[in-house]
Amino acid sequence: MPYEQITERCFASAIGPSGLAREEFDRVLAEAAPALDALRRAHDGRTMPLLALPARRDDLDPARRVAQRLAREAADVVVLGTGGSSLGGQTLYALCDQGFGPKGGGARVRFHDNVDPATFEALTAALDPAKTAVIAISKSGTTAETLAQLLVLLAWARQGAGSAAGGRFVAITEAKPSPLRRLAEAHGMTVLDHDPQIGGRYSVLSNVGLLPAMVGGLDAQRVRLGASEVLKETLAARDPSESAPAVGAALSVALTRYKGAGTTVLMPYADRLERFALWFRQLWAESLGKNGAGTTPIRAVGTVDQHSQLQLYLDGPRDKMYTLVLTGCAGEGPEIDGSLGADPELAYLAGKKMGALMDAEGRATVETLARHGRPVRVIHIDKLEERTLGALLMHFMLETIVAARLLGVDPFDQPAVEEGKEIARAALAGLAPAASS
Amino acid sequence: MPYEQITERCFASAIGPSGLAREEFDRVLAEAAPALDALRRAHDGRTMPLLALPARRDDLDPARRVAQRLAREAADVVVLGTGGSSLGGQTLYALCDQGFGPKGGGARVRFHDNVDPATFEALTAALDPAKTAVIAISKSGTTAETLAQLLVLLAWARQGAGSAAGGRFVAITEAKPSPLRRLAEAHGMTVLDHDPQIGGRYSVLSNVGLLPAMVGGLDAQRVRLGASEVLKETLAARDPSESAPAVGAALSVALTRYKGAGTTVLMPYADRLERFALWFRQLWAESLGKNGAGTTPIRAVGTVDQHSQLQLYLDGPRDKMYTLVLTGCAGEGPEIDGSLGADPELAYLAGKKMGALMDAEGRATVETLARHGRPVRVIHIDKLEERTLGALLMHFMLETIVAARLLGVDPFDQPAVEEGKEIARAALAGLAPAASS
């Protein structure tokens, strides 16, 4: 397996009375068996396309061709879309670009998931419409924010390139008729199909998540390889204890049921996993937060949040479960030069790799949380790259699906969000158009 | 006042039984009177330097001179520091740079608050050491992460510029001896003093928060003006009901005490306030999260998190208070061109300003939350700029201080974090140095 899940510090035997008794955990874990059976049936019967994605190869070539063209022709690629249409791409693209442009050169991908008017004024002022490509993603093809973004950027691009501008635009949407698809067809955009049976928050392994990152040079096949390893283990599990995602789901649900953990903190020790934690936050919140059920997911980043949230985590209310993702980074990064300040107070740093500091702090935080009786799970990966990130993504999708079954909610719907969308649309429809200027 | 606080949707009269009864709120609000008295005494007796900052002018000229020099001489300014040494600067700098470089030209400020080895390898590969300036911030001058970052970048800069490299480095730290101060003096860095009596999470109005943003062209005096307006109102309040921060603190504490709100969501509808919400998250967590007290702060962003967290907020557990920050953006931004797709399903967007969409969604989310019986406070500002941001910053610092007094905890210490730092340092000290390479 591409990662190791270490659960011992969630139990009373390790952290005292705020941890789980073994029988509490075992009771919940046993309840996960029907969820695993359902996953196996869905996989074998091909009724859940998400589970078929890791083994798919046929859809990668078309996406790769589009990605390579955009990387070559554009200086900037703007990805429009929100929620599940953006966070998966952001998560994967973070492997390719650490804030200074893509490692291998080529176009820089920028994700715009809001309709902030000031941001769009800054964007259109800063980028060159003749060197900007756009990927617009909306599963239904009706998302108001994405359509507004797209109409604004299309008008902007046409001012420079005229009616040819649409040639640098790509849409990902379902095959059925929709405003987005009609717009794309009317303006000569490239269109890739969004799988109608894979909802946004589960779409990271489809072209929705992969295409933006492939512009940055991501090896999509290795992402799917990591995902498939995790899926295989869970499908082969004779018992929930043999499935890491089922164990994770049972831990989480048991800590909520027996220990009042109403929030769950995902805290990777890697800048490149900050967006991953944000992706998880949507996955968990929208899949479980219904009928009064669910727990509140919190995205944190180590070591940064040691200097922001750790006080609360160690000494605030005992209402949280913690998951720290640690990577084998101890030998990585620049060496800290001790000769610059021959200072005895700096001796503990001198000659160490920067990664040793990151690594020591992650492990120290695990121990400190446990010593304060806070339940902490560790997920360890040796090296952060496509395969291990693909494994983490599949782990947390499966964990979320199993947790939903344990809570008795549907992991795939989001009824309250639909209501919010309706209300926003009605509010807008009631507005008069802007005075023409 | 530069903002309006609208509280009616936190009460049972507006949202039903999950809202506060008026007498529950009044009881907590009355308890805030001694906290306001203490603030007045601290202000008049000059025993809390934070409260003197808004009226100070003497420290702005030295900071401005440094900022202007860095903006002129460097292409990139890297700010090193973590927690309160970074988030205030990030918050203010967001007004100057919306992700495409500073509006007025000049150096681009990049905040690095982590010791991720991969990030620092990318940074040193991408930036030009001869055109990069560095601001290193640590109040105590002993923060391990900041010292490690600084040693790495100093060695990198010296490879290019030799011993003159230190001239483009600035340190902000207390006047007393420390590793950071010694390092700064040994290498000819500019040093600005960190006020010893203003802790990191309360330092945004000092040179700690202001200097990085002044590089981007921020008008620091207007930030302080907005802060002083809020402070004056609270100091002049004859009764807690006349202080917006006291009202906010009482709402929050009463919702926790009587309605079980264990988390508090701050959700501004503005990309430029995303870092502000992150700054608040530290302020609230470190100030209140002690002795089992405190509530968990959550940073959200509208409209983005409507597509990620709203399902949980509307239909998950009733354990949250919501604060939405709305700005008067309805008339702003590009107009949505309806002629590009003469599609009846797009008619509700055609001719509207993008800001109208943002505005309508913010207001719709307030109503939707209230309709689901979720307590929502609205903070409305007409225009997001230095003065109104300064007002928000002072509002939330005062609200946090008053809330701490209501909860019976010290808003200014962070005992558990200190313990975590000790453990990390001990772990590092036990490591052997990296094999020299």
Using brief descriptors, characterize the structure shown.
Rossmann fold; five-stranded mixed beta sheet; 2 domains; homodimer; 437 residues; alpha/beta; five-stranded parallel beta sheet
How does this model look, in words?
- The structure is a homodimer of 437-residue chains.
- Chain A has 437 residues and is an alpha/beta fold.
- Chain A has 2 domains: 4-32 and 243-410, Glucose-6-phosphate isomerase like protein, domain 1 (Rossmann fold); 53-220, 3-Layer(aba) Sandwich (Rossmann fold).
- Chain A is 47% helix and 12% strand.
- Chain A contains 17 helices and 10 strands.
- The first copy, chain A, has helices at 12-15, 22-31, 33-44, 49-52, 60-73, 87-93, 117-126, 144-161, 179-186, 207-215, 220-236, 244-259, 274-288, 310-315, 354-371, 386-407, 415-429, and strands spanning 4-6, 76-80, 108-112, 132-137, 169-173, 190-193, 263-268, 296-299, 320-327, 376-381.
- Chain A has a 5-stranded mixed sheet with strand order 1-10-9-7-8, with helices on both faces. A 5-stranded parallel sheet of chain A has the order 3-2-4-5-6, with helices on both faces.
- In chain A, β2, α6 (87-93) and β3 form a beta-alpha-beta unit.
- In chain A, α13 packs parallel to α16 (386-407).
- The longest helix of chain A is centred in the C-terminal third of the chain and has 22 residues, at 386-407.
- The radius of gyration of chain A is 23 Å and the shape is globular.
- The termini of chain A are far apart.
- The model of chain A has no long low-confidence stretch (mean pLDDT 94).
